[in-house]
Amino acid sequence: MTIAQRNSLQAIPAYKQGATPGKHEQAFKLSSNENPFPPLAAVTASLASELGAINEYPNAAAPELVGMLAERFNVAPETIALGAGSVEVAGQLIHATTNPGDEVMFAWRSFEAYPILTHVAGATPVKVPLDASGAHDLEAMAAAITDRTALIFICNPNNPTGTVVDAAAVDAFMAKVPAHVLVVIDEAYVHFNVHGDSAIGLDFFHRYPNVAVLHTFSKAYGLAGLRIGYAIAPPAVAQNLRKTAIPFGVTAIAQRAAVLSLENEPELQVRIDELIEERTTLVAALRGAGVELEDSHANFIWLNTGERTSAVDASLRAAGIWGRAFPGEGIRISIGSAEANKLVASAVIEALLESPAHV
Ligand SMILES: Cc1ncc(COP(=O)(O)O)c(C=O)c1O
Predict the structure, then answer these.
(1) What's the rounded Cα separation, in Å, for the pair 140 and 32?
(2) Does 318 reside within a domain?
(3) Whole-prediction pTM value?
(4) Residue 1 forms part of a structural domain
(5) Is the CB–ligand 1 distance for residue 216 below 6 Å?
(6) pLDDT tens per residue, range 112-148
(7) Do 90 and 222 sit in the same domain of this protein?
(8) Closest by CA position to 87, among listed 300, 201, 250
(9) Are residues 188 and 84 in the same domain?
């Protein structure tokens, strides 16, 4: 006798984590866009003292962190809603805005979790293909809006292609979005985006009543393992995000680490600048050798390997590079340490250009 379960889950793929090399393998894990730097010394030193209080629940309102974020972004504290990683907040956004069968739109390919979270919430995902350069096709997205559309994600920069949306194009898009539809600008990689024409989520949040922004401490701030992210959303939405959140999902340690990270932003900025420089060097090395790829504005690059993806991925793994392959489409490789990036350059050139017979 099988146990009764929700039928629709059979059709939903489980979220697939970026692959990790075995312990004894000489390899770099560049599959999850993690920060290659160790946590800040100020963060690790202070967290030890928090451990003595883990017998208590955290303060779910996280007043210190919320206060700092509100001040930093010049928003009211009630617009901020925290979650155990921005992926949890993305799920909350879907739960907070959709009724069963409502549509959640996003570009595709984009962040893997969007369709899964949408299905789990009982809503319907609407995937609008990226354009040929891997960028959001905002005109096609506007044309795909129906009377069931409840929520639209714009991933900027886009995971996995690294492209950005232009501020002017988002303004033109917003003119076509009905006022009751929430547009979420997911800025998980915003710190690595130095493109002058890019849309800036907070700017849109301040100018449109139906825009929310999604931020995380996982990437530029290097706190992926502690799970903390947040939305800045219209107050009525933020209130419903708190209702749909799992109680006490954000630990006191995560809150403290986030506060310390904000206090130590200059030190983090040095690391961010270094990663951006590494990205520039890597892209230049690949292009110099004849590899074609788009500019990336995030902490990863995207190789448009199409049908050759699985073979190229196998060659890269043999060389010690564990990226994230999407069979039939391409491979995303995170920017790692300088040593890792050098190996990425040589391994990609070898796999794509020097031994193409193998791929
Ligand atoms: C676009 C995007 N949004 C959100 C997330 C979620 O990150 P986290 O839950 O660690 O904050 C990710 C993680 O890879 C991402 O790529």
Answers:
(1) 29
(2) yes
(3) 0.96
(4) no
(5) yes
(6) 999 999 999 999 999 999 999 999 999 999 999 999 9
(7) yes
(8) 250
(9) yes
